[in-house]
Write a structure and sequence with these properties.
Elements lengths: L4 E13 L2 E8 L13 E5 L5 E5 L10 E6 L7 H8 L5 E5 L13 E7 L3 H14 L3 E7 L8 H5 L7 E5 L10 H4 L7 E7 L1 H14 L6 E5 L13 E5 L5 E4 L5 H7 L18 E5 L2 E2 L7 H6 L2 E2 L5 E2 L3 E4 L2
Parallel strand pairs: 7-8, 7-10, 8-9, 10-11, 12-18
Antiparallel strand pairs: 1-2, 1-6, 2-5, 3-4, 3-6, 12-13, 14-16, 14-18, 15-17
């Protein structure tokens, strides 16, 4: 077991909805697990050698376990399939300590929580935290149908159910989410949080930005990215600042792959520009950002990029490696 990892046992595996299972993870020695804040996720090392990120969806004050919810995605690259088919109660898994790239802004006057499908996992954790803290919020949970609504019973029996609205794609028109009505105009001190499929998140964020919501009041976390390949993709070079070594990156190779072939290891996890594990500082040159991890302001600064998927607009990038 490497530094920064934990050994946990699957204490419970349960079906939460069609194609969704939850996993309760406990320390193999029965000790309390490291604390976490709402919006946190863990890296899970799977039996098939892959590593995937899953948001913690239990209440942050529960120190005895981590609960994750996993959708068996038809377009899986092997992660969700392994969780559903290879991981069972009693199994021991290696995970990371919790990380949080999607934290609550505790200075908020109020919060608007928007969840699409399995994106409910970090959003539900936020609702639990805000309810316990007595902070005002509203939650909208959109799914394809009632039978695909993970944690429905848990929410229905929660003390904050009156603040939650369910929206089903196959339900009557009047119960469907009206994003424009929810985000009609910016409200000082109100923060918006969204997680779910990319199309859902794009719709929410584009609506909010068009309405004039400040970027600092918009918070989001993508689960997966769509591969971006362009006919105009070209080869380029990266130079390592520490040694001066120059590495050629072919048009059909990622920077991570080119570095690996040269014997330079960069830690990766999602390999889609979502998790931020591989972020590297850029000292010179202009990156071609293709990730979903960096904020617009971080992209504009051009002083870091995700080598697992992003490329270069300039002929060379000098990296802090």
């Amino acid at each position: 077991m490497s530094m920064g990892t934990l050994q946990v046992r699957v204490a419970r595996k349960a079906v939460e909805a069609v194609d969704v299972c939850s996993f309760d993870l406990i320390d193999i020695g029965g000790k309390p697990l490291p604390p976490f804040s709402a919006g946190s996720h863990i890296d899970v090392h799977l039996p098939n050698g892959l590593t995937r990120q899953y948001s913690l969806c239990n209440a942050p004050f529960e120190s005895g376990l981590y609960r994750i919810g996993v959708l068996k995605d038809a377009a899986t690259r092997g992660g969700s399939k392994a969780m559903h088919e290879q991981v069972n109660e009693g199994d021991v898994l290696t995970i990371s300590a919790p990380k949080n790239h999607f934290p609550l802004a505790h200075q908020a006057k109020s919060s608007v929580l928007l969840a699409g499908g399995i994106g409910v996992t970090p959003i539900l954790c936020m609702a639990e935290r805000l309810a316990v803290a007595g902070e005002p919020f509203e939650m909208h949970y959109c799914t394809r149908s009632r039978d695909r609504t993970a944690f429905y019973q848990r929410i229905e029996h929660s003390p904050f159910v009156s603040r939650v609205q369910f929206h089903f794609d196959d339900g009557p028109p009047e119960q469907k989410l009206d994003i424009h009505a929810v985000l009609d105009k910016p409200q000082p001190g109100v923060h918006v949080y969204v997680c779910g499929p990319k199309g859902f998140m794009d719709a929410v964020l584009s609506t909010a930005r068009a309405a004039g919501w400040p970027e600092g009041q918009l918070h989001y976390e993508f689960f997966a990215a769509e591969p971006v390949a362009r006919r105009t993709d070209a080869s380029f070079e990266v130079r390592l600042a520490s040694s001066g070594q120059v590495i050629y990156v072919p048009m059909d190779s990622t920077v991570v792959q080119a570095l690996a072939e040269a014997g330079v290891y960069v830690p990766t996890s999602c390999e889609q520009g979502v998790c931020g594990t591989c972020v590297v500082r850029v000292l010179e040159g202009e990156p071609d950002h293709r990730d979903l991890y960096l904020t617009p302001a971080e992209r504009a600064a051009n002083d870091q990029f995700t080598p697992c998927c992003s490329r270069a607009k300039s002929a060379r990038l000098v990296l802090d490696l």
